[in-house]
Amino acid sequence: YPSEFLMQKITEDNQIPVHLHVSVSLQYVAGLKGRALVEFFHSNIAEVENEELRHLMWSSVLFYKTPNVEVMACVLLSTKAIYFLLDDSFIHADEHQSDFWNKENSDCENSSFHLSCCFVLKLNDLQSVNVGLFDQYFRITGHSADHIVTCLTRDSYNTHTFIQQLMAVLSLLARTPSPEPVDKDFYSEFGSKNTGKMENYELIHSSRVKFIYPNEEEIGDLAFLVAEKMDGLTNLPSLNILLYVLAFQVNNVEGSAQNTSSLQPKTLILTSSDLFLFDEDYISYPLPEFAKEPPKRDKYQLADGRRIRDLDRVLMGYQTYPQALTFVFDDVQNQDLMQNLTLDHFGE
């Protein structure tokens, strides 16, 4: 019997982001309120009779087995498991990965009955949670490649709230206590590590699930990578990353009935001199323990980069969050106009 406060909170959270389209089955879930939502969970999703629904969140998700397919999901956290109620378009999105999903219900495809896939990750199978830079996303890791999921919340508040709720639920789990730690002396505890670089911050929960947070060196590595892409135009010490945000690049699709827009996930990085768009791999890094070879692509791949000095104007939409921004740059790329004028008009 959930409290009134919890039912009100879950009802408030049950809203699909306005800029993302979902299937009819998920629209039905988003229309449920209060007690109807809790009853839907117990009659259609929950695997154990006595589990409680504690938190609900809408988020884009990525699976380790299908790293190129981002799909909308309703994420439900209970006292026993994390459930990902998926958009049914996901099954057809990546044909060569279709064995990842059980297709025993394919005979219902052409009927008016709408199905959703539900991916279940039991809390007892959970091993670690990696939180991304600036809490823009987090990756949940289980015991195999099938049990690695990244939630692209693109929102530090949603990430923080989910992590808090997950820690609270994990505290209820009865697990065998880990062995007593061996006492370390001061020098072995704080001495130089063999790896030559600092480990990420790890918080080991009482349930023995690791919560891993990025350290300052990740920003340093990212700044170095950005400087490389700038072809040495800027000296590294003065390069500061001012903003890192997961966004969408809007590509207008012409020729359709009404000009629709497709949203391409991108990582936007703003420095003191440039604006960059990167294609980032949110699911493969850091490498899981069972990975036998490195991922096929780098963590960051440059998609576009422009100098701030070439920025002509910024157009802002009037709609509520998420806000649309249009950056208009001058046509002349990587050219210093004054220098060229001097050469052309005043001799050699």
UniProtKB/TrEMBL annotation:
<keyword id="KW-0963">Cytoplasm</keyword>
<feature type="domain" description="PLEKHM2 PH">
    <location>
        <begin position="114"/>
        <end position="178"/>
    </location>
</feature>
<dbReference type="GO" id="GO:0019894">
    <property type="term" value="F:kinesin binding"/>
</dbReference>
<dbReference type="GO" id="GO:0032880">
    <property type="term" value="P:regulation of protein localization"/>
</dbReference>
<dbReference type="GO" id="GO:0010008">
    <property type="term" value="C:endosome membrane"/>
</dbReference>
<protein>
    <submittedName>
        <fullName>NISCH protein</fullName>
    </submittedName>
</protein>
<dbReference type="InterPro" id="IPR057288">
    <property type="entry name" value="PH_PLEKHM2"/>
</dbReference>
<dbReference type="InterPro" id="IPR053015">
    <property type="entry name" value="PH_domain-containing_M2"/>
</dbReference>
<dbReference type="GO" id="GO:0032418">
    <property type="term" value="P:lysosome localization"/>
</dbReference>
<dbReference type="InterPro" id="IPR057714">
    <property type="entry name" value="PH_NISCH_C"/>
</dbReference>
<dbReference type="Pfam" id="PF23142">
    <property type="entry name" value="PH_PLEKHM2"/>
</dbReference>
<dbReference type="GO" id="GO:0007030">
    <property type="term" value="P:Golgi organization"/>
</dbReference>
<feature type="domain" description="Nischarin C-terminal PH">
    <location>
        <begin position="241"/>
        <end position="347"/>
    </location>
</feature>
<dbReference type="Pfam" id="PF25625">
    <property type="entry name" value="PH_NISCH_C"/>
</dbReference>
